[in-house]
Amino acid sequence: MLYAGSPMDERRKRLAFRAWRRGFCEIDLVLGCFADARLPGLEEDALAEFERLLGAPDQAVYAWIVEAEPPPPEFDTPLLALIRAFTYLNRPPTSGPDSETQP
After folding, report:
1. For the chain, which domains are there?
2. Which three-class secondary structure state does DSSP give residue 39?
3. What 3-state class would DSSP assign to 55?
4. In terms of pTM, does the model score above 0.90?
5. What is the Cα–Cα distance from 62 to 80, expressed in whole angstroms?
6. Phi, psi of 24 (to 5 degrees)
7. CB-based contact 53:22 (threshold 8 Å)
8. Distance from C-alpha of 93 to C-alpha of 64, rounded to nearest angstrom
C-alpha cells in the first residue's frame, strides 16, 4: 500500500482524496494523477503548498496549470512548476493536422 500508518501518511491520504474530488473533471485528473504519483515523495513544505493549492478555486488552478493565466505570486511555486511538468509529460498524444497518424 502506498500510504501506511503514520500521521503524515494519513495527511497524504486526505490530500489525495481531495485531489481526486474537486468537482471539475479536468482538474480531478490532473491533481489526482499527480497526487497518486508524487505525494508519497513530497516533503513537508511541498505538502503544505499542495494543500494550499487545493484550497484555491478549481477553474483558477486549472488555468494556472495549463498556463492560460499567470498564477498569483503566492501560488507561483516550485510545486506548481512540478505539477505543470508532470501534466505535460503525462498527457496523451493528440491527433490533428500537425501529427503524423497512419491508418
Report:
1. 7-89 (1.10.150.250)
2. helix
3. coil
4. no
5. 11
6. -140, 110
7. no
8. 21
Q: Residue 82 has which C-alpha cell? A: 512540478
Question: Between 90 and 74, whose confidence is greater?
Answer: 74
The distance between the two most distant Cα atoms of the chain, rounded to a whole number of Å, is 52
- H-helix or E-strand containing 35? helix 25-38
> Mean pLDDT, to the nearest integer, of 4-26?
84
Cβ burial of 32 (10 Å; 0-12, 13-18, 19+) is: middle
**Cell digits of residue 78:** 516550485
Average pLDDT over residues 25-29: 92
Distance CA 80, CA 75 (A): 7
Residue type, 34: F
20: left (phi over 0), alpha (psi -120 to 50) or beta: alpha
Q: Band the pLDDT of 67: cuts 50, 70, 90.
A: very high
